[in-house]
Amino acid sequence: MGVIRVVLVDDHEVVRRGVAALLDSEDDIQVVGEAGTAESAVTRITALQPDVAVLDVRLPDGSGIDVCREVRSRMPGLACLMLTSFADDDALFDAVMAGASGYVLKQIHGSDLVGAVRTVASGQSLLDPQTTASMLARLREQESRKDPLAVLSPQERQILDLIGEGLTNRQIGERMFLAEKTVKNYVSNLLGKLDMQRRTQAAALVTRLKAERGERGDLRPW
Q1: Residue 14 burial (CB count, 10 A)
Q2: CA–CA distances in Å: residue 209 to residues 30, 74, 212, 221, 222
Q3: Residue 58 bridge partners (DSSP)
Q4: How far is CA 121 from each of CA 38, 72, 80, rounded to the nearest angstrom?
Q5: Which domains does the chain have, with CATH numbers?
Q6: What gap in Å lies between CA 192 and CA 128, rounded to an integer?
Q7: Which pLDDT belongs to residue 1?
Q8: How far apart are the C-alpha atoms of 205 and 222, rounded to whole Å?
Q9: Do the strands 52-56 and 58-59 form a parallel or antiparallel pair, or are they unpaired?
Q10: Which GO terms describe its molecular function (predicted)?
Q11: What is the rounded distance in angstroms from the CA atom of residue 137 to the CA atom of residue 110?
Q12: How far out from the chain centre does Cα 98 lie?
């Protein structure tokens, strides 16, 4: 792989000097630049084209997460390692969504930080299985908020749409070429998935969603 070129971004000069000295003492790592603000970080990283950017999450004029998102949009191959003083689930989630490869606390041992730089430089992630599971759960939650019908199958969505039109089970069956008993089972299932007891609740949900979506005419995902 050769020498790993690193740019350090932290608003505390003492921290930058300490990390730079630590990394430069390794034969396979070279600190090629430093920055203390988000604005200068974007400029320096873009100009120097390092392999790894070690970014403080909190900067005087912005966030290291925003820097990560910006520079990776220009340099997709760049590995960003977020460095922070305290654990923050929201910041961790935002960092991952911005494309960061790793997230470590400043209390980390020096040898572990060196290992972290090598790990992300090799294209690997520093997120442990528990963190990854948490991220996936949060993504699913966001998707569910974006589309409250995400739990429904296409067939159930169509039936829900027809419930919103005021059709009975028999009428839905005729429209969809299904037996009335089959429609009744679908209705029971979709009400359960939506945590509802009555079809009037489902009809009200359809009305609200269509109003929010500009009366598009169906309940397809956005």
Answers
A1: 8
A2: 55, 37, 5, 11, 11
A3: 63
A4: 22, 14, 9
A5: 4-143 (3.40.50.2300), 154-217 (1.10.10.10)
A6: 34
A7: 58
A8: 16
A9: unpaired
A10: DNA binding
A11: 32
A12: 7
- Contacts for 120-125: CB closer than 8 Å, 24+ residues apart: 120/52, 120/79, 120/80, 120/81, 121/1, 121/4, 121/51, 121/52, 121/79, 122/1, 123/79, 125/101
Q: Compute the distance between CA of residue 8 and CA of residue 57 in angstroms, rounded to an integer.
A: 12
pLDDT at 222: 37
Q: Answer yes or no: pTM beyond 0.85.
A: no
Q: Which residues of the chain have pLDDT under 50?
A: 215, 221-222
Distance, CA of 102 to CA of 79 (rounded, Å) = 8
Tokens describing residue 64: 């290291």
- Per-residue pLDDT, 75: 93
CA distance 162 to 164: 5
Which residues are CB-neighbours of 120 under 8 A, at least 6 positions away?
Answer: 52, 79, 80, 81, 101, 102, 126
Asked if 64 contacts 70 with a C-beta cutoff of 8 angstroms, the reply is no
pLDDT in tens, 100-142: 888 888 888 899 999 999 999 999 887 655 555 666 566 656 6
CA atoms of 21 and 84, how far apart (whole Å): 18
Helix axes 154-164, 199-212, angle to 10 degrees: 90
Residue 138 and residue 96 in contact, taking contact as beta carbons nearer than 8 Å: no
Percent of the chain residues topping a pLDDT of 70: 84
